[in-house]
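DM from R.C. (forwarded with permission)

"hey, sorry to bug you on a friday — could you get me a structure for this? deadline for the figure draft is monday and I only need the backbone to look sensible"
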Amino acid sequence: MSPSVDGSTAINDLESRLDLLYTYCQYELLLAHPEETRLSLYRGINRMDEHEILETLGRNRYRVLLNIFSSTR
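My reply, with the result:
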């Protein structure tokens, strides 16, 4: 990490990498279980106030909107 990179930039970079890993896991699960039409995946998040809550499911359980965009170069 360069000296000019602050903590929030490093966190955002890490979260982007975790989003990419999460997307890859979804892809691999689809390949491993093609007969399944739905798979439940759970992803922890930080800073709940920065997410759009779609539904409250219970104590500390929410359905949130994630803007995950993954592409290859």
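R.C.: lifesaver. The chain has one helix and two strands.
me: no worries. Strands lie at 52-58, 61-65.
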